[in-house]
Amino acid sequence: MTITQVGAAACKILVAGGFGVGKTTLVGAVSEVAPLRTEEYLTTASVGVDDLAGVDQKTTTTVALDFGRITVSPELVVYLFGTPGQERFWFMWNDLVNGALGGVVIADTRRLESSFASIDFFESRKIPFVVAINCFHGVNTRTDEEIRAALDLDPHVPMLVGDVRERSFGRDALLALVDHLMALPVG
Known about the structure:
By secondary structure, the protein is an alpha/beta fold. The protein has 5 helices and 7 strands. The chain has a 7-stranded mixed β-sheet with strand order 2-3-4-1-5-6-7, with helices on both faces. The model has no long low-confidence stretch (mean pLDDT 83).
């Protein structure tokens, strides 16, 4: 039996966050298959539209979604959908979130404000989420308490700190989401 045969349950998780925080990287790090990416090169047309402050080395951007898959067992597969980060593509989030059990919001400590919209998106729709703080090059100049306060996170929202390039960190973020979902009251 292959995972795509009838009988396998599917679980959808959204990976969201601001422009350049590491969404595509996280999906690629944990996906068991080569992820589907809709990356396009940044061009001069994006000058004045896309804010490259803090991500000035970025050369590509997601224009639709990233898609990855994790087979948990022959009966369960997890589908990951990475959202585009720029405001001009936010209209797609409403379609991408349909059927999602929850989300992982990736935040960059150098630009925490870039993740406010993602947190607001999940909170306003009452969709459970966890926050994965991506410490680029292992650098984090803030305490967990400072980050939580800056993001105005409810105390019950799990928050992890690590490097999204590491498969183990992506796994831990997804497991934290599962734990969070299981701890929520039913009904």
